[in-house]
TrEMBL record:
Organism: Rheinheimera tangshanensis
Protein name per UniProt: Transporter substrate-binding domain-containing protein
Amino acid sequence: MSVMMARFYPLVCFIFLLLPFLSGAQPQQVIYSWPMSMLSDVRGSYPIALLHLAIEKSGTDYQLVPSGQVMTQHRTLRQLGSNNGLDVVWTMTSPEREKELRPIRIPIDRGLIGWRLLLIHQDNEQKIQQLDERQLKNSPSVQGSDWPDYPILKANHFRVLGSGDFDSMFKMLKARRIDYFPRSITEIWPELQQRPGMSLAVAPKWVLNYPAALYFFVQKDNIELANAIEIGLLRAIEDGSMQQLFLQHFSSAIQQADLKSRTVIQLTNPILPAETPLKNKMLWFDPQLGY
């Protein structure tokens, strides 16, 4: 080795060591819309676990990272759409959301978001049980004013108030300013456990049902990430790992809901996008099968 080569050899080796990083070989970060401060909240555990599973099954080299702060649903979707620090959200679909964002049209919770039990004040249990369907619709309830559920209930002639503050809806229920707060099977039990001092309960007898899809959404032009998530989900469906994860997280809640013994009020969903894959039965929850 010449004196000149010997002098530059360590520098050449250092450059070669840096090449994987300079060429972008590090995993690309994907920020999902669940803040780090809420990682212990069980409501986020399934979609986060499923997103990890989908990325793993896709064979892509993405690094999933939680977001930095708690935001309202409206602000979260705006931030994703403006390409401002978010890459993936999971939320119920609507025509507006599919216009602004790119949906991966596989309902991640098999449509359980559209199976709604009624959260009530425990002192109103007998009152709610004795109502008929017309009386239930005329009783005051609440939903998020920017949630798709709000216009769905309105279109089905429910007396529903809109609120922009999630915690205030539970306070309204505690103060009995409303009679019930419809929550999905996947949400209601954790939310009840998180508020032991509010005298809340799950109403007997009733369950509302409307076709609804909870999707992963990405930015409109992020085709690469959308394809990775879709491929991963399809592979997880095919090999049964998505079913296994779904049952691991929700079988207890499904059993506790005891849908077969409840009176189902079937609602229409006028804002369900036409592209929703309702005919693909393998993607949707069947209460008779429990999956």
